[in-house]
Design goal:
The chain is mostly helical. It folds into 3 domains: about 110 residues, no CATH class; about 60 residues, no CATH class; about 35 residues, no CATH class. Helix content is about 55%, strand content about 0%. The protein contains 13 helices and no strands. The radius of gyration is 25 Å and the shape is elongated. It holds the Pfam family Mutator. It comes from Ignelater luminosus. InterPro entries: Mutator_transp_dom. This is Mutator-like transposase domain-containing protein.
């Protein structure tokens, strides 16, 4: 069974709500309730419900997802104490003005694929690291194992952090890296440069550190 990313599912839920807000066929009284703030709250309660029901019963997850709009618009008759402090309270409820317009249908239908509350954050982090090593996808790296090598290096960087070069050197050679190697790849230097080059082109330190470095945007330039 395919597992859906909870983050993307909730993001798409928000997009559906914005479409409803801009749909003139929906009653104006209901669309007025879909402010940017309320849409954010609706997404937040959906994410919270996914977290609470993780690895539980799919039917419970679907019930709580469907109750999200009721909770946000002050109808707490079906809420649960685990995510609501006003269980049973229906005073000032506005849910009748915002009838079910279908925004939740797709999210609820994927309940069985969202029950584990999984995300693809780790995959996206790895791919962002890989993009740094393959020059921003600007080169043909499919020959002679070049892309595979960069993918393996990205895995080392992902698993071992910013000190992956030294750790890998020691594992392969059983010796400590030399003076020049350590000079440019120490964890302390990397962290220090990261902190003091924020702002990029508005930061003189960034411009200085960038000089002499091989970057994706300068790759292939002639000096």
């Amino acid at each position: 069974m395919k597992i859906h990313c909870a983050n993307h599912a909730v993001k798409n839920y928000g997009k559906a709500l914005y479409k409803i807000r801009n749909d003139t066929s929906v009653a104006a009284s209901g669309r007025k309730l879909l402010t940017a703030k309320n849409i954010k709250v609706l997404q937040d309660i959906a994410m919270k419900v996914l977290y609470i029901n993780a690895h539980g019963l799919v039917e419970d997850l679907k019930v709580d997802l469907l109750n999200g709009p009721n909770h946000v618009y002050n109808d707490h008759s079906k809420c649960k104490q685990i995510y609501c402090e006003n269980v049973g309270d229906k005073e000032n409820s506005k849910i009748l003005e915002l009838k079910n317009t279908g925004a939740l249908d797709r999210l609820v239908a994927k309940g069985h694929q969202l029950i584990d509350n999984e995300t693809n954050n780790r995959a996206e982090l790895y791919m962002s690291i890989l993009c740094k090593f393959n020059a921003g996808k600007r080169l043909n790296l499919t020959q002679r194992g070049s892309f595979e090598t960069r993918a393996n290096i990205s895995g080392l960087r992902y698993n071992n952090g910013i000190g992956w070069q030294s750790d890998t050197w020691k594992q392969i050679t059983s010796t400590s890296p030399g003076e020049h190697f350590k000079k440019y790849v120490t964890k302390e230097d990397i962290v220090e440069i990261e902190v003091h080059t924020k702002g990029q082109w508005d930061n003189p330190r960034y411009i200085m550190e960038r000089k002499g470095r091989l970057t994706a945007s300068r790759f292939g330039e002639e000096e």
